[in-house]
Amino acid sequence: MAYIFVGLGNYGEEYQETRHNTGRLLISLLGKSLGAEWKTDSKLNAEVAKVKIGKGAVTLVLPNTMMNNSGKSVRPLVSSIKAAEKLMVIYDDLDLPFPKAKISFNKSSGGHKGVESIIKNIKTEKFARIRVGISPTTATGKIRKPQGDDAVTKVILGKFKPDEILELKKLSKKINEALEFFISGGLEKAMTNFN
Fold first, then answer.
1. What are residue 152's phi and psi, to 5 degrees?
2. Alpha-carbon gap, residue 130 to 132, rounded angstroms
3. What is the spatial order of strands in the sheet that 3-7 belongs to?
4. How far is CA 20 from CA 3, 24, 54, 132, 191, in A?
């Protein structure tokens, strides 16, 4: 059974470099580093690429839905709790400062609509995720989480600045290593090395 790595974001040109598309951006960068050939899978309504990482067969998935319906692209690939153990979802998180990232497992969606959709569709929270911080910080590095719907929308749909894209590319190398650990040594090992 292949590993499934999903990058969450909104589909469409206007969302391309927005913070809400962090997961999609990072899985695209992983695909690029592996020379992935993307194909549109109409059944999944997603861009899909099959790659090898170490000895593991991996299916990379970029849902072509809006964020709130991401789970529909994942459901056909994860039909059991056993299959969910090989699922890794990468997404943006307002509870972490940019560019901090953290691997977690078996948690609630934390209000993230894409993750909520996946939980609802595969009927379990027992899957791994890499949460990538997108919240702005103060000069001292303290998190400045946006308050209120308008402020949240402004941050998540705001585009990354060029220097932030560079930070993201640096972070993607660490995330790619964590994903290799996830395949070769399991989740615990990946968490120990990454968190």
1. -65, -45
2. 6
3. 39-41, 46-53, 56-63, 3-7, 87-97, 128-135, 101-105
4. 24, 9, 29, 10, 23
Alpha-carbon distance values, 166 to 6, 35, 66 (Å) = 22, 20, 26
**Distance from the Cα of residue 122 to its chain's centroid:** 16
- Token duo for residue 195: 């968190």
Task: List all residues 6 or more positions away from 191 whose beta carbon is below 8 Å from its beta carbon.
Answer: 103, 105
Query: Which entry of 19, 20, 86, 129 is annotated as an active-site residue?
Result: 20
Give tens-digit pLDDT for 90-126: 999 999 999 899 999 999 999 999 999 999 999 999 9
Q: Tokens 């319906």: give the residue.
A: 69
Structure tokens at 91: 């997404």
pTM, 2 dp: 0.95
Which domains, and CATH codes, for the chain? 3-194 (3.40.50.1470)
Place of tokens 């059944």: 43
Q: Which two tokens stand for residue 103?
A: 């691997």
Nearest alpha carbon to residue 44 among 6, 17, 80, 14: 6
Per the CB < 8 A criterion, the answer to whether 53 and 179 are in contact is yes
Residue 20 falls in the annotated catalytic set: yes
Tokens coding 58: 């991996």
Quick one: DSSP state of residue 148? S
- Strands, E assignment, 65-153: 87-97, 101-105, 128-135
Q: Which pLDDT band, with edges at 50, 70 and 90, does 54 fall under?
A: confident
